[in-house]
């Protein structure tokens, strides 16, 4: 916290949501205040949690005038001073999606100069209820010195022990990691398949010796070394099998890989014989699907990924497709410029985005279509501005609710280059 002074508690009327999961209001001294645990339009009493000379962060500790969209949080660990994992458990699911749509539209308008309608689509979980729960196939627990795991509190190193996580998929909760003791461990990741038929824990060593893996219902990897089978997970998407090593990246929502894979194929409509480029390819989700679609008549896919373990998985996941190549490399403008002519590009960068230079190189590459998958509207909008300034057109934009109860959303933007004169 800075030395800026101000009241520790005050009443405020909050407006819309901001990036980061809070709603925006004005403190008595005129500074912007970002209020967690509030809903747009509410009047609340807040307690300041940190401040600078320009803005404050605060928690809503009492609701004076409630929004009609406010609901009782289903999780007992949600709320001020508790688990920092969920932003909006106190807001009805329909309003959550509307708030995400407003955030995406605002970022596109402000950063990309694009005025587009945005609707956030629900994603199936395989459960009967669309309640925003039971969707997360991977959780990460921090471990206290006594071996007890928990989640970090918001903007804090303090832990909130929990008995269970309501947004975790049933397969994750079957492991029972939250109720076990993880002596000598610093961090535990629990992952499962969308069906829950396989489960694995990846344990990171703490300061005192090799961690002991308790008797939980899962395979185990300790500091990257196999300790108990299974050592990884096997997923199925669009009829294909994918193997992912423990600790490796896979879309976290139970329905995400299927929904995104299908959406990308529908948007790009790949043809036999086309050449495709899959950047930030991970374990080969899109590369394999594209590989099947472009097979024959010289069709090819080049998957580029910087993580060696992910590349190993991607090579295994595309082994039946000899025209799919996997390259271990950073995605740079120089790499893009050396690729040569391609017809299709799938771009799925980390949260920071592809970056202006890489996006400019892709614009110069001029594929038939580019599908940009993004988990961060702001970085997507910044890169979209580069494409727009180069004369490209955003043909479509879809937003998927892959992270219910949080502010996060997944985007799929499809872009076409300017027509050749």
Number of strands: 22
Question: Helicity, in percent?
Answer: 10-25%
Whole-number count of domains = 3
Instruction: Provide the CATH superfamily of the largest domain.
Output: Vaccinia Virus protein VP39
The first-to-last residue Cα distance is 57 Å
- Give the spatial strand order of the biggest sheet: 6-21-22-20-19-16-17-18
Total count of helical runs of at least 4 residues: 8
What percent strand? 25-35%
Largest sheet: 8 strands, mixed
Q: What is the succession of H and E elements?
A: EEEEEHEEEEHEEEEEEHEHEHEHEHEHEE
Mean pLDDT: 96
Shape: globular
The CATH class assignment of the largest domain is Alpha Beta
Task: Briefly note the CATH topology name of the largest domain.
Answer: Rossmann fold
Poorly predicted ranges (pLDDT <50, ≥5 residues)? none
Description:
- It is a single chain.
- This protein has helices at 93-112, 170-175, 256-268, 285-294, 308-317, 333-339, 356-365, 377-389, and strands at 9-13, 23-26, 32-36, 43-51, 55-65, 120-121, 138-143, 149-152, 159-160, 185-192, 199-205, 219-222, 225-228, 232-237, 240-245, 275-279, 300-305, 324-328, 344-347, 369-374, 393-400, 410-416.
- A hairpin with a 2-residue loop joins strand 14 (232-237) and strand 15.
- With 421 residues, the chain is of the alpha/beta class.
- The longest helix has 20 residues, at 93-112.
- The model has no long low-confidence stretch (mean pLDDT 96).
- The protein folds into three domains: 9-70, Nucleic acid-binding proteins (OB fold (Dihydrolipoamide Acetyltransferase, E2P)); 109-122 and 253-416, Vaccinia Virus protein VP39 (Rossmann fold), CATH 3.40.50.150; 138-235.
């Amino acid at each position: 916290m800075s030395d800026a002074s101000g009241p520790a508690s005050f009443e405020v009327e909050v407006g819309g949501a901001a990036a980061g999961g809070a709603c925006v209001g004005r403190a008595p001294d005129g500074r912007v205040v970002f209020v967690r645990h509030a809903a747009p339009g509410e009047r609340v009493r807040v307690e300041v949690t940190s401040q600078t000379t320009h803005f404050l962060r605060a928690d809503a500790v009492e609701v004076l005038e409630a929004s009609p969209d406010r609901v009782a949080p289903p999780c007992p660990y949600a709320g001020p001073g508790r688990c920092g994992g969920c932003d909006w458990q106190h807001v009805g699911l329909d309003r959550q999606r509307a708030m995400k749509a407003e955030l995406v539209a605002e970022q596109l308008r402000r950063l990309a100069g694009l005025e587009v309608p945005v609707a956030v689509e629900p994603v199936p979980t395989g459960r009967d209820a669309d309640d925003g729960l039971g969707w997360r196939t991977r959780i990460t627990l921090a471990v206290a010195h006594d071996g007890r795991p928990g989640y970090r509190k918001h903007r804090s190193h303090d832990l909130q022990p929990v008995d269970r996580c309501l947004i975790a998929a049933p397969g994750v909760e079957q492991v029972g990691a939250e109720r076990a003791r993880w002596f000598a461990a610093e961090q535990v990741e629990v992952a499962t398949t969308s069906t829950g038929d396989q489960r694995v824990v990846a344990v990171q060593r703490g300061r005192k010796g090799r961690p002991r893996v308790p008797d939980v219902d899962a395979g185990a990897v300790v500091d990257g070394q196999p300790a108990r089978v299974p050592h990884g997970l096997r997923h199925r998407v669009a009829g294909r099998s994918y193997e992912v090593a423990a600790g490796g990246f896979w879309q976290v929502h139970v329905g995400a890989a299927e929904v995104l894979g299908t959406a990308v194929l529908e948007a790009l409509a790949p043809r036999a014989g086309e050449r495709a480029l899959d950047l930030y390819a991970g374990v080969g989700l899109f590369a394999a699907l594209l590989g099947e679609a472009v097979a024959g008549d010289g069709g090819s896919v080049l998957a580029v990924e910087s993580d060696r373990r992910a590349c190993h998985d991607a090579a295994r996941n595309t082994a039946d497709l000899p025209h799919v190549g996997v390259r271990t490399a950073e995605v740079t403008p120089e790499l893009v410029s050396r690729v040569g002519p391609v017809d299709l590009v799938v771009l799925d960068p980390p949260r920071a985005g592809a970056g202006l230079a890489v996006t400019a190189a892709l614009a110069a590459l001029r594929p038939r279509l580019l599908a940009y998958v993004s988990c961060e509207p702001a970085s997507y909008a910044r890169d979209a501005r580069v494409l727009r300034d180069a004369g490209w057109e955003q043909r479509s934009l879809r937003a998927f609710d892959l992270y219910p109860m949080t502010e996060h959303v997944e985007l799929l933007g499809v872009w076409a280059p300017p027509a050749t004169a």
